Amino acid sequence: MQSDVTTKQEKLQEKLHVGIIMDGNGRWATRRGLSRMRGHEAGVEAIRRIVEAAPKQGIGTLTLYAFSTDNWRRPKAEVAALMTLLRFYLANEVASLARNGVRLTVIGRRDRLPDGIAAAIARAEQATADGDVLNLRIAVDYSARDAILNAAAKAAALTSLTREAFSQLVTGEAGLRDVDLIIRTSGEKRLSDFLLWEGAYAELHFTERMWPEFEAADLAEALACFHGRERRFGGLQSLPLEPAPSL
Ligand code: IPE
Ligand code: IPE
Ligand code: MG
Hints:
Elements: H1 4-11, E1 16-21, H2 25-31, H3 36-53, E2 59-68, H4 76-99, E3 102-107, H5 117-127, E4 134-142, H6 144-155, H7 163-171, E5 181-184, E6 203-206, H8 216-228
Parallel strand pairs: 1-2, 1-5, 2-4, 3-4, 5-6
Bound molecules: 3-methylbut-3-enyl trihydrogen diphosphate (2 copies) and magnesium ion.
The site of one 3-methylbut-3-enyl trihydrogen diphosphate (IPE) has 11 residues, from strand 2.
């Protein structure tokens, strides 16, 4: 028999999966005459707000883009500061995440992170493993193309392959729901190598708001837009989808 926790975690798959490209920390700070670092610190506050708000707004899975593989191209001092923030987040936030039923997983590479961070991630994942209120995935040293490439390398050893099995290789999670909505703050309108496989039919929402000023009400507005859209998945409005022909 399945445990209660497993059943509740599975139920999260029935709720929305939202991905957020948390962009604009630097511009938010620069416009205020602050260092970019202050923008990243304010960005962590925004993460706290949105993680708290998400389950109340019908979100079961939240994937946050925190650091891309291409972000290593930034000046060393900024990268170091971002890694320090990640370290602090993992050290300070885990207890409250666990208390609030948030299961944290980190996606992306771990082998290039500064000393101790991979271990801190593993501890945080373990401490929050029973969370059944929100599946929080933070993308660090993440590239969607690399995730697909790594999955393809693993798949090469298999004799048969389904989309579902390949999805698990890409996402690292069995049965993870495709992303329903991708939000990008700061007015940029691009995906920057985020959730390219999972987002095949994602709705896209772009807002001028900078990430440090993004609030629960902005999330609600994005979701209201989302609920107003007509998702077709290749079919026609309000008619049940016919089964696709087999491959
Ligand atoms: C997003 O804010 C945070 C990361 C990419 C780490 P930026 O740092 O990209 O902010 P802008 O785009 O320079 O304003
Ligand atoms: C994308 O933002 C990555 C994150 C938000 C972590 P960037 O600011 O790095 O993206 P580009 O360079 O403007 O496309
Ligand atoms: Mg940016």
